[in-house]
Structure formats: C-alpha cells, structure tokens
Design goal:
This protein is mostly helical and 346 residues long. It contains 14 helices and 2 strands. Among the domains are: 1-91, no CATH class; 99-144, no CATH class; 194-298, no CATH class. The chain is globular. Pfam families: HTH_Tnp_4 (PF13613), THAP (PF05485).
C-alpha cells in the first residue's frame, strides 16, 4: 500500500524513498481510541476540511516524521507535529495534583483498604461505592492544562545567559591549561587555528562583524540553533560521511555557523576549510547535510512578509495610486529576430 503524508502541502510518498531522507510515516491517531489527539493533529496539518476530517480517516492515513521535533516521530514531550501555518511546536499537556488533594485521596484509599478487611455484604458494597467514587472523580487541575510553545522570549534570554556563562568558564579553563604548560605544541597550533568560531566572532570589537558573516545577530543565531537542534543528538544525515572527516567531533554550532558564512558571503570551500581548520571534504559534506536538514525544519514555515512590512517599503507613487497593493505578478517579453524557415528556427 502506497503511503502519503497528510500534512499541509507535504508531498512525501513511500514510492520515492530517496526524497524522505530518513523520515518515517507515522499513523494518524484513531478517532475511536483517541479523539482529542486526532483533532489536534488535524488542526496542525491545516488541510481543508473536505480533504482531512474525522470521517475521512482510514488505517492508511499518515504523517511523515519530517514535521515532528525529530525524524523518529512524536515524543513524550512533543507528541504532536508542528503547526503547518506557523511552524510552532507544542508540548504535552500536564496535570497537577495539589498536596492537599493528594492527602485526601490517600485518606480515601486507606479507608477503602480498611473496609475491605470485613467480609460482610455491607462492607463489600461500601468498598465498591468508594472505589467508584475515587475513579469517577480524578483530581485534575484543568487550569494547568495549557499548551506551551517550543520556546518563549524568557527561555531564549535564559539560554543566552547560560551560553555566556559556559563561554566564560571555557575561556578560564583554557587560560589555566596554557599557564600550567600541559598543552603540546601541536594542540596549541590547533587551538590558534580554531579561533574562527561563532563565539569569538560575536566578541569581536569590529561593529556588526557577526551579522556581516551570517546576516543574523548573535542572539537570533542562538534562537535558530535551539530551534534546529533542541536536543544534544545530531539529527543531520550526511550522505558522503567518511572516517577521516571526523564530523562527529565538529560541533553543531560550528556547522551552522560555517553554512551561514557560505550562504551569506559565498566563501570558497578551501577558504572555509582553512578558517575552521578542517578538511575540504568535510566542508562539502557538512554544507550539503546542513542545507538539507534546514530545508526539512524550515521548509514548512511561512515566509510571506506582513502587509504592514510590504506597505512600509512600497514606493511613494504606489502608495498614492495603489495603497492596497500587496503583490505584483509580471512577466517580461524579449523580442528576438527569427528566420522565416521553420528548419532554420529549430
């Protein structure tokens, strides 16, 4: 049976495994067993109601794992795919039981256990009544069942502070190692050659140097890094991975930084190999892997600018004559001479 992805405008198809790039097909939750989760997935897919609804479900309705936080599919923390319109991920809903309510529940259970020691019919009926009351009234704080975004502004500030703290500690430890003389000459040479990093460029006294290399500010770079790699594991699939490239020892932050330098300034592969102190083959392998992975993570996000942005950069003549214009579709015709003979035209 051919498997198709029901997510947004995704065209993943099991007949073309080379285009899946390691992704899997995750079956849709069944409406009869988990209706709430099924409705959440329908909302995230953002397909027209006539194409995707509860009545349209079969056992062959799937969503490919490209749209989850990892290529392995849903996790306990993020059980739903990202929103096809906004690209947001939502964590699993939490249930909180207060200590006072927990103690009441424990007292009720203790009464039930003490009552069960009596073998009389009345005690057995009381036990059934208490058990029914306990199971039919679960202690749930509905006000805490809220959906959380992947990261908020406060989370980003906290991550930036942690990164800065780790950088300072790393610099301090490196200085101690140099002072004690426990680093060999070869290691010192490598240390000097690997100073072209995202952290070192962000600390440069040259104004906007990091933005010059990447097109992003350092804080936005960290936000992008957290969004692309929320866990410590490397999700990138390298097609031409070799043993001598040592990609596993190349940090993910450096891989993303090198790719943005290549994308922003079109730096040559040999130039990047010299700057990052790696082999030329490693540069090509990393750039191809990061480009394909970023397409999977960012391809479903909306990139159309807001109407206020479009109106703000619109020429004054257009603002006067066409104030509500948001897009212009145009084509250009180029006139060329052609012979009358059809044979000569071909």
């Amino acid at each position: 049976m051919v498997k198709h992805c029901s997510y947004g405008t995704c065209k993943s198809d099991s007949r073309y495994p080379e285009k899946l790039m390691g992704a899997k097909f995750i079956p849709f939750p069944k409406p009869k067993s988990d209706l709430e989760k099924c409705l959440r997935w329908i909302s995230c897919c953002r397909r027209p109601h006539a194409q995707l609804n509860v009545d349209k479900f079969t056992k062959h309705t799937y969503v490919c794992s490209k749209h989850f936080i990892s290529l392995d599919g849903p996790s306990d923390e993020y059980p739903d795919p990202c929103d096809a319109q906004t690209g947001e991920l939502h964590r699993a809903r939490r249930k909180i039981i207060y200590l006072s309510q927990q103690s009441e529940s424990d007292d009720l259970n203790s009464k039930t256990s003490s009552t069960s020691t009596d073998d009389s019919p009345d005690s057995h009926a009381m036990e059934c009544c208490l058990t029914t009351q306990t199971t039919s009234n679960p202690v749930i704080d509905s006000s805490c069942q809220t959906e959380e975004e992947l990261f908020s502004s406060m989370d980003v500030l906290s991550w930036v502070a942690q990164v800065r703290k780790l950088e300072e500690e790393n610099d301090r430890l490196r200085q101690e190692i140099r002072q004690r003389g426990k680093v060999s000459d070869a290691a010192c040479q490598t240390e000097r050659d690997t100073h072209f990093t995202a952290e070192e460029v962000s600390k440069s006294k040259i104004k906007n140097l990091f933005e010059f290399y990447t097109g992003l500010s350092y804080s936005r770079f960290l936000m992008l890094l957290v969004f692309l790699f929320p866990s410590c594991e490397n999700p990138i699939i390298y097609e031409d991975k070799r043993k001598e490239t040592r990609i596993d020892k190349f940090p993910l932050s450096q891989q993303l930084f090198m790719y943005l330098c290549r994308l922003r300034n079109a730096l040559n592969v040999k130039d990047l190999a010299f700057r990052f102190n790696i082999k030329v083959q490693t540069v090509s392998t990393v750039i191809n892997g990061v480009a394909k992975y970023m397409y999977l993570r960012l391809g479903s996000l909306s990139y159309w600018p807001h109407r206020n942005t479009i109106i703000g950069i619109m020429p004054e003549s257009y603002k006067h004559d066409f104030p509500n214009c948001l897009a212009i579709l145009d084509c250009t015709e180029l006139k060329t001479e052609k012979p009358s003979s059809l044979k000569q035209q071909s």
